[in-house]
């Protein structure tokens, strides 16, 4: 929270806000792994490799949240 709002003294967060952050994080990770598995299938493999995830990050571009 300090990185997002450095000028505000935020020490507490509501439970509903924390649940929303968790839900968004889980959805992002699911989509990321689904896209990475598509790259694995394109390479005619069954095993997800680190290289698939690296390529996925490159394909998503600099605007993706994980690449900042």
UniProtKB/TrEMBL annotation:
Organism (species): Odynerus spinipes
Core Histone H2A/H2B/H3 domain mapped to chain residues: 11-59
Family to which the UniProt record says this protein belongs: Belongs to the histone H3 family.
Membrane spanning residue stretches: none
Protein's recorded name: Core Histone H2A/H2B/H3 domain-containing protein
GO molecular function annotation: DNA binding; protein heterodimerization activity; structural constituent of chromatin
Source organism, top-level taxon: Eukaryota
Signal peptide residue numbers: none
Any one of the GO CC terms: nucleosome
């Amino acid at each position: 929270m300090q990185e997002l709002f450095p000028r505000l003294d935020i020490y507490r967060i509501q439970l509903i806000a924390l649940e929303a952050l968790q839900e968004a994080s889980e959805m992002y990770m699911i989509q990321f792994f689904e896209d990475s598995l598509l790259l694995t299938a394109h390479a005619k493999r069954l095993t997800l490799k680190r290289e698939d995830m690296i390529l996925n990050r490159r394909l998503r571009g600099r605007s993706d949240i994980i690449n900042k």
